[in-house]
Amino acid sequence: MNTDNLQIQIKTFFGLEQVLAEEVKKLGGKNVEAKNRAVTCEGDLGFLYKLNYSCRTALKILVPIMEFKAFNESKFYDKLFKFEWDQFLEKHQSFAIDATVNSERFNHSQFMTLKMKDAIVDYFQEKYKIRPSVNKDNPDIKFHLHIDRELVSISLDSSGDALFKRGYRKEQTVAPINEVLASGMLQLAGWDGKGNFLDPMCGSGTLLIEAAMIAMDLPAQTFRRNFAFQNWKNYDSELFKTIKEVRLNRVKEFTGKIVGYDINYDALDAARTNIESAEMEDIIEVKKQNFFDSEKDMFPLLMVFNPPYDERISINDDDFYKKIGDTFKQHYPNTLAWLISADLDAPKKIGLRPSRKIKLFNGKLETRFLQYEMYDGSKKGKYINKEE
Fold first, then answer.
1. Is residue 162 part of a domain?
2. Domain holding 210: CATH number?
3. Could you tell me which residue, 357 or 106, shows the higher pLDDT?
């Protein structure tokens, strides 16, 4: 593998492709291109380490190692059996395979995964008289199999566990927001650490912690201990150590306020535990406060939140969203507020016209990320529907 010019594929959520592309460009990626739920770029081994350590909206970072066309299972197996797997996998190491299959010829991802596993094991058995073990839970090396019709792509997974697993979350409420989605929302909302931030329904504190990390320019994986690339044959521990030191030296002081409200004691306890785990007790404040009884007390202010819905809380939807709109209008003048909702009729219930609407997915739930601009007095014509 030529480590000076790696072809890199970075997975993300639908709707965050441009945010991720901007992140990759700022980190130094070359030939950056946004795709569907992914971004591709080029870079060296050090850049691959930097991406894994720093990128906020990446879910998984892959390095393609082979590509071919196969029209039946026999051809698929033969191509894989002839590949030199010992370039990437040591005899004593365990491995696992993730698979995504979109093909009429090969319509069973589990079966194709099994065929690939057989090809790898048979390769080592024939060459070394030894069989590497499969470990689905904690493998040394992880491969990704992607089949699109006849085109087969095999990649090395450089991340291991998905990159939303930052390492700071110790407690969670029901259906907490994914860390990658939270960071993407904050970046879409324009949060850059200037001013003050409020999450008025903070749950276990994910948006608060991600907001603090952005404000301080703290790398996304500061609290993570392991990456898959650390088990690669060409792993350069000194290079990774240097990259971490350089990134951590860029961390800056945050002088604004980051505040979270919630009315649920368990949620507040979970938020405090996670904030303490992220060592941000001095930066983030959480308190028991009903948003509907609150008033703006920070200037300037950006508000981003994930109102409870579905199984998390029993609410009268119409009344709940109407109260959000009333609180915006009556208590938060001159404020930019964003909220995410799986209720696609939420804007009608809020009673304000959103100035931006962005389609995102929270897990499998289709949502809208809505921006509201509150002003003192009437600003006719200021609210413009803009679908993105």
1. no
2. 3.40.50.150
3. 357
